[in-house]
Design goal:
- It is a single chain.
- This protein is an alpha+beta fold.
- Helices cover about 30% and strands about 30% of the residues.
- The protein is built from 11 helices and 20 strands.
- The chain has a 9-stranded antiparallel sheet with strand order 13-12-9-10-11-14-19-17-16, with helices on both faces.
- Helix 3 packs across helix 4 (about 80-90), helix 4 (about 80-90) packs antiparallel against helix 5 (about 95-105) and helix 5 crosses helix 6.
């Protein structure tokens, strides 16, 4: 059976999660990408074909002129609609392309949820190239958040306090992204959380979720994610109802939301695995073939009624971040160890000698620490992780 996997840049989710899972399932894999050299380096031995994967027509043509497909899949935020359209064209199991588009377009997601009667968030769109001065005529609730309409990973997401700053921030983003439409929306206060779900279109499993620690405002860098085996049932019910309204229920999904006074409000829906190594940790923590389950749904196989997930673990992912621009001149190497029963996995995300600007996004991550414990408490996990990070040294030279 042949799996076509659409990708942009290589990610840990693909190279360490989905590609090994495909191999374990005995699938023949063809990666379609606009960055073929990078994927050939990250996944030697995998067939990689160059393709304009942002264009669903190019994807369909590339597949139609190669081997017959049994599944078309992507874990990229940017390619869900294209993969869904291509899979549907070949009569294969797929996400609803309308739902994929609906959640990728943050303005459309707000409109759809408001029309459903489940949640109304004040928001406005600024078209690519449109003068931010038009926003001054609107009754913008401050503080508010500015972000690209189809952005990811906190890229160019910023909190603003007034009209002058709003116009300035919009102009800055437009200078960096002249073709991007922007969304301005009310700031949703509360504890930032996520819900991880896996469905086959008929059955949906809630895998748990995370509580997220953010960087100080005005930016929204997700510095630490702590696993939550079960959010309160009323909170989960609110989020699932909103996902149902959006048409989200096939494959894996990472939904970010805030909770305040028991009310859960979606920030964004990422119709893919959580990423940033948290999905790798989730598979290990639950002790299930998570990536295989995801691929099986795209092959048309139903999910089991019981995934057999373990419930005896605590876990977190902590991402040390660069605080300034410059060259990384000292950093710890990859390591796996066990301390006081806690499994620690540290992986560098930048090579020593690399120079980077300061992005105020997840691109500022310089490492990833996964910490996992079984039959232990959260306090022990937090202490061991904090002690490990405190003993490391990262140096950035301007």
């Amino acid at each position: 059976m042949r799996l076509y996997l659409l990708a942009l840049n290589p990610t840990d989710s693909v190279t360490e999660g989905f590609l090994p899972a495909a191999d374990r399932l005995g699938l023949q894999v063809t990666v379609l990408t606009d960055q073929p050299d990078a994927h050939r380096r990250s996944a030697p031995g995998i067939e990689v074909l160059e393709c304009d994967v942002r264009d669903f027509r190019a994807v369909i043509t590339r597949i139609a002129t190669h081997h017959a497909p049994d599944a078309v899949f992507t874990n990229s935020d940017h390619l869900q609609t294209q993969a869904a359209l291509a899979a549907d064209y070949f009569g294969l199991p797929a996400k609803d392309w309308k739902a994929a588009l609906r959640v990728k377009d943050k303005a459309q997601m707000r409109r759809h949820l408001a029309a459903s009667g489940l949640d109304a968030v004040w928001s406005a769109e600024l078209a690519a190239g449109q003068d931010p001065a038009v926003l001054t005529a609107l009754d913008v609730p401050y503080p508010c958040v500015v972000k690209p309409r189809e952005g990811v990973a906190s890229e160019d997401v910023v909190l603003v306090d007034g009209p002058e700053e709003l116009a300035l921030r919009c102009k800055e983003i437009q200078d960096r992204r002249p073709s991007a439409a922007l969304v301005v929306e009310e700031y949703l206060a509360g504890d930032l959380c996520s819900l991880e779900t896996l469905g086959d279109g008929k059955l949906r499993h809630v895998l748990g979720g995370f509580r997220t620690r953010l960087s100080p405002p005005p930016y929204f860098i997700e510095e630490r994610c702590t696993f939550v085996s079960a959010h309160p049932e009323p909170v989960v019910a609110q989020i699932l109802a909103q996902l149902d309204a959006l048409g989200v229920g096939f494959g894996i999904c990472h939904t970010e939301f805030v909770v305040k006074d028991g009310r859960a409000r979606i920030i964004e829906v990422n119709y893919r695995a959580i990423g940033d190594q948290a999905d790798l940790m989730l598979a290990q923590l639950l002790d299930i073939p998570l990536f295989e389950h995801v691929l099986r749904t795209h092959l048309g196989e139903p999910l089991p009624a019981d995934l057999g997930a373990r419930t005896d673990g605590v876990a977190l992912v902590d991402n040390p971040c660069a605080r300034s621009a410059g060259t990384l001149t000292a950093a710890p190497e990859a390591v796996d160890l066990v301390v006081d029963g806690i499994e620690l996995t540290y992986r560098p995300l930048r090579a020593v000698g690399e120079r980077h600007e300061l992005y105020h996004t997840n691109r500022d991550f310089i490492g990833a620490l996964r910490a996992l414990g079984r039959n232990t408490d959260q306090a022990t996990l937090d202490r061991v992780a904090a002690d490990f990070l405190a003993a490391q040294r990262w140096e950035i030279t301007p």
